[in-house]
Amino acid sequence: MLPRLSCRLCATKPVIDGILDEECWRKAEAATGFSLLDHRGKATQQTRCMVAYDRKNLYIAFVCLESDLEGIQTHCHVRDGPIWWDDCVEIFLDVHHTHSSYFHLITNVDGTRFDEVGTVGRPHPNPASWNAAWKVATAVIPGGWSVEIALPFVTLGVSAPKPGAIWGFNAHRQEYRLIERSSWSETSQSFHEPGNFGHLVFLPSL
After folding, report:
1. What does the alpha-carbon distance between residue 111 and residue 191 come to, in Å, rounded to a whole number?
2. 155 neighbors 134 (Cβ within 8 angstroms)
3. What are phi and psi of 155, to 5 degrees?
4. Using omega within 30 degrees of 0 as the cis cutoff, is the peptide bond preceding 125 cis?
């Protein structure tokens, strides 16, 4: 069964500074228990992902636990460059829940951005397919690093979801010191498997 993650309407939008100290993050349900690609069990360097929204933006946060901060790899500093060779986090959004096309975003510890529209059966990466207006900030924290993202609904071509709406969603992490590629909703051969995305369920505020 595919996992489900609640996305609550937040009363006050978070400040995108990489520090997850806002009320929306304290109250958010977290996607946890990230599994390694190819069904190889749980990642030793675990990740938490949280999601919230308001009338304009989808907000996404990550806490990436890392037992050796000196081992974090970051080389890509160019928009739409090969960030997947760095320690990074990835987001997949199937906003129409068709299991065929999706938005894909990646960022590394330096906050470098990559984005594309993916379609089942077509080659990727394809960064020319989409350049979204999204904000990201990161921070190195005790025992790991954190990420905070604001993604406007308008750049996804949709309106703010109504409570009860469900999107396909997956969150991934690449950790290069131990070569761990992990995801919240388990995938098989690739992260690019919209049929294996979990469900993001939009709910009213607490």
Report:
1. 21
2. yes
3. -75, -15
4. yes
CB atoms under 10 Å from CB of 164, counted, come to 9
Which residues are registered as beta bridge partners of 42?
A: 35
Tokens 């992990």: give the residue. 182
Q: State the number of CA atoms in the 13 A half-sphere of 136 facing the CB.
A: 25
Selection from 121, 141, 128 nearest residue 65 by Cα: 141
Instruction: Give just the sign of the alpha carbon dihedral 5, 187, 88, 179.
Output: positive
CA dihedral over 9, 110, 117, 177, signed as positive or negative? negative
Mean pLDDT of the chain: 96
* Token pair belonging to 45: 């360097």
Tens digit of each residue's pLDDT (9 = 90 or more) over 125-169:
999 999 999 999 999 999 999 999 999 999 999 999 999 999 999
CA 139 to chain centre: 16
Ordered DSSP codes for 44-105? SS-EEEEEEE-SSEEEEEEEEE-S-GGG------STTS-GGGSSEEEEEEETT--SSEEEEE
Q: Is the pLDDT of residue 206 over 70?
A: no
